[in-house]
Amino acid sequence: MTTATHPYDALMDITARPKAVFVRGAGSYLWDDSRKRYLDFVQGWAVNCLGHSPPAVADALAAQAKRLLTPSPAFYNEPSLKLAEALVANSAFDQVFFANSGAEANEGAIKLARKYGSLYKGGAFEIISFEGGFHGRTLATMSASGKKAFEPLFEPKVAGFKKAKLNDIASVERLINDNTVAVMLEPIQGESGVWPATDQFLKQLRALTEAHGLLLMFDEIQTGMGRTGKLFHYEHTGIAPDIMTLGKGIGGGVPLAALLATERASCFEHGDQGGTFNGNPVMCAVGLAVLEEVSKPEFLKAVAETGLLLESELQKVSARHGLGGVRGRGLLLALDLKLPIAPGIVAQAFEAGVLLNAPQLDTLRFMPALNVTKGEIAEMIDCLDRILTKAGAARRVA
């Protein structure tokens, strides 16, 4: 479809999109080409951790673009060295490989685990992942994912991934054999509807993998960079994985991701891994600026407090309308609608100028900027409340 202003048909039609064309963003708000304003509680699927076009990101982009775009990954550059050092200093890991997307970081993690298996576990290559998990859209990360919609696509898939049940340690133990090298999971399964692994389950996984000499791999593409009120989700548990992947929020709106590993797990040899734009100085300069903001103790404390406020307000909405529970942690939350009405609510909210996400037919997911204000939360809640009432979903009990 082509209009007088925009040739929509020049883009591949890979997803349903509303016809609005966004032209500007600031903080928690977006504006389209008709100057309509939208309150954004999606933020690029938890990408814009500091909101749209924050000064820290814009300034880092402008400054680095004037200095150096890329010398090629065959050479060191200053921003990538500084960001790697800062990530190591703020985490339980020893080395970092930079990538451009979460899927690419997860692909690297899978390769790293298999390399480890070839060197230290007699060629072991199988990775246990989880039903409902989502790790990306490359062939290997789709194979690792437990998303039902992926099962018939692009066959044959990459072999070597067995699926356990989240929060069921016995289901993991049953899958371990001589070919197993690692266990891989999201601490909170975002795409399937914000289903958290319990802290107790993650501790059990750590103990189980250590007992069998396996690597534990956390996909923190969505939960990392302060999203749950800690810089990284694993910090809630008192344990640490051997490998962690970051994406989305680490770039604050630009394409940046990272694969972090302990010294023991960092076994790539020259030529095993690479990428033309990996460790790009412009992207890494932005990542460093984002990390400096997000890692501040007062910032993380505010995220935790704001997350509790949003959770409380969603619970009130649920009580007023007879809906289900609220799941998640920090500012990654979901509301169980108990009915397959989520896409309709998202569409109505869009018309009202609020951006929401429906990862499942009966679920709304909330991923606002980490610096979202109380007033912006109130604005979103008021919109959602009006839609639920108008839609006749309300069964008032308050």
- Which series of helices and strands comes N to C? EEEHHHEHEHEHEEEHEEEHHEEHEEEH
Number of domains: 2
> Structural class, from secondary structure content?
alpha/beta
Q: Give me the count of strands.
A: 17
Give the gist of this structure:
The chain is of the alpha/beta class. It is built from eleven helices and 17 strands. The modification N6-(pyridoxal phosphate)lysine is found at residue 248.
Task: Output the keywords.
identical protein binding; four-stranded mixed beta sheet; amino-acid biosynthesis; 398 residues; disordered C terminus; 18% strand; Aspartate Aminotransferase, domain 2; alpha/beta; 2 domains; globular
Give the helix/strand layout.
Layout lengths: L21 E5 L2 E4 L4 E4 L2 H4 L8 H13 L10 H12 L5 E5 L2 H19 L5 E5 L8 H6 L16 E4 L4 H7 L4 E6 L2 E2 L5 E2 L2 H14 L2 E5 L23 E4 L10 E5 L19 H14 L2 H25 L4 E4 L2 E5 L5 H10 L2 E2 L1 E4 L2 E4 L7 H17 L8
Helix pairs in contact: 2-8, 3-8, 9-11
Polypeptide structure, described:
The chain is α/β, with parallel strands linked by helices. It has two domains: 22-53 and 307-391, Aspartate Aminotransferase, domain 1 (Alpha-Beta Complex); 55-295, Aspartate Aminotransferase, domain 2. It is built from eleven helices and 17 strands. It has helices spanning 43-46, 55-67, 78-89, 102-120, 139-144, 169-175, 199-212, 281-294, 297-321, 342-351, 374-390, and strands at 22-26, 29-32, 37-40, 95-99, 126-130, 161-164, 180-185, 188-189, 195-196, 215-219, 243-246, 257-261, 326-329, 332-336, 354-355, 357-360, 363-366. The strands form four sheets. Strands 4-12-11-10-7-5-6 form a seven-stranded mixed beta sheet, with helices on both faces. The protein has a four-stranded mixed beta sheet with strand order 1-2-3-15. Helix 2 (55-67) packs antiparallel against helix 8 (281-294), helix 3 packs parallel to helix 8 and helix 9 runs parallel beside helix 11 (374-390). The radius of gyration is 21 Å and the shape is globular. Mean pLDDT is 95; it is low at 393-398.
